[in-house]
């Protein structure tokens, strides 16, 4: 376990197969319309970052361009201060433009600490490593993200995926 202010020394690695595109695209749905999330508060902006909050612990950050949602970052949290990345998805034509990183920046303003999921696709592992190598990449309280899942987390969140 890393101490406060220390960098994670082991790089993130792929731990799962590719994600299901239809399931990931469902996370781009209008508020309360995602089959995997349910009720949410908030509204999608035509351009920029929208924040959608579920009473069940999910916070979605959705990036839209010209009225079309193109990227999403879903953070799960039990207490509203410590979060875990459950899903990250950017439509294929908009990847590698820093959009998911902007969503992560918005999430870091809302959570004291954010951990990466252990269930990472190859793209998700690459993104996690890029995020952590950037200046000021640690969360608000300077605790670096961990790549651990407790049995309690697995019972509550299941196998989360990160795709960017």
Measured distance between first and last alpha carbons: 26 Å
Low-confidence stretches: 1-9, 136-149
Indicate the proportion of strand residues.
15-25%
Helix content: 10-25%
Radius of gyration: 15 Å
Q: Biggest β-sheet: count, sense, barrel?
A: 5 strands, mixed
Number of helices: 4
Strand segment tally: 5
Q: Which series of helices and strands comes N to C?
A: HEEEEHEHH
Plain-language structure description:
The protein has 164 residues and is α+β, with helices and mostly antiparallel strands. 23% of the residues lie in helices and 21% in strands. It has four helices and five strands. The protein has helices at 21-26, 99-110, 122-133, 151-157, and strands at residues 48-53, 58-65, 68-76, 82-90, 113-115. A five-stranded mixed beta sheet has the order 1-2-3-4-5, with helices on one face. The longest helix has 12 residues, at 99-110. It starts with 20 loop residues before the first helix and ends in a 7-residue tail after the last helix. 33% of the residues are buried.
Blueprint of the fold:
Blueprint: H1 21-26, E1 48-53, E2 58-65, E3 68-76, E4 82-90, H2 99-110, E5 113-115, H3 122-133, H4 151-157
Parallel strand pairs: 4-5
Antiparallel strand pairs: 1-2, 2-3, 3-4
Structure described in brief:
The protein has helices spanning 21-26, 99-110, 122-133, 151-157, and strands at residues 48-53, 58-65, 68-76, 82-90, 113-115. By secondary structure, it is of the alpha+beta class.
Key structural traits:
alpha+beta, 164 residues, 4 helices, 5-stranded mixed β-sheet, disordered N terminus
């Amino acid at each position: 376990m890393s101490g406060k202010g220390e960098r994670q020394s082991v790089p993130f690695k792929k731990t799962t197969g590719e994600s299901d595109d239809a399931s990931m695209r469902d996370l781009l749905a209008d508020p309360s319309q995602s089959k995997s999330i349910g009720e949410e508060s908030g509204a999608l902006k035509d351009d920029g970052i929208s924040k959608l909050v579920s009473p069940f612990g999910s916070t979605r950050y959705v990036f839209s361009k010209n009225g079309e949602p193109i990227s999403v970052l879903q953070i799960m949290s039990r207490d509203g201060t410590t979060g875990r990345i459950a899903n990250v998805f950017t439509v294929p034509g908009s990847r590698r433009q820093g959009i998911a990183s902007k969503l992560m920046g918005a999430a870091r303003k809302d959570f004291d600490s954010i951990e990466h999921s252990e269930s990472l696709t190859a793209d998700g592992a690459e993104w996690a490593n890029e995020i952590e190598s950037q200046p000021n990449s640690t969360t608000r309280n300077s605790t670096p993200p961990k790549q651990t899942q407790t049995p309690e987390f697995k019972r509550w969140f299941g196998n989360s995926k990160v795709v960017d």
